[in-house]
Specification:
mainly alpha; 5 helices; 63% helix
Length: 115
């Protein structure tokens, strides 16, 4: 029996994120082209989705893809990883289901906001 992890915000929200992933990487037939976003922008979105889904293998893959795309595009310095992890915090309604990486970022942000 295969056990599936229930999505943090339910299956409907999960379906919306899957649609976002499909639009970003494949486009929407008759409405958008798949390459309206740059490769780097698509990898940023993929990284956020991997963070949200708490998939370690996907996080490693897309972190490396972001690093390579940033180098190729000679992107300006930006603390992209921390900022994108922060973005995933707003996708969660139940803080008890945050990943370790998200929780560490949450605590760090609280320390900055409430010294």
């Amino acid at each position: 029996m295969i056990r599936t992890k229930t999505p943090l915000l339910g299956w409907i929200f999960n379906d919306v994120l899957n649609e976002l992933h499909q639009i970003v990487f494949e486009g929407l037939p008759g409405e958008t082209a798949p390459f309206e976003l740059t490769h780097l922008e698509r990898e940023y979105i993929a990284y956020v989705l991997a963070c949200y889904y708490q998939c370690g293998r996907c996080l490693q893959f897309h972190e490396r893809a972001v690093q390579l795309a940033r180098k190729k595009e000679n992107a300006p310095e930006w603390n992209w990883k921390d900022d994108l992890v922060s973005a995933t915090l707003f996708l969660h309604l139940d803080g008890t289901k945050l990943s370790e990486m998200e929780w560490e970022r949450w605590v760090k942000n609280l320390a900055i906001l409430c010294p």
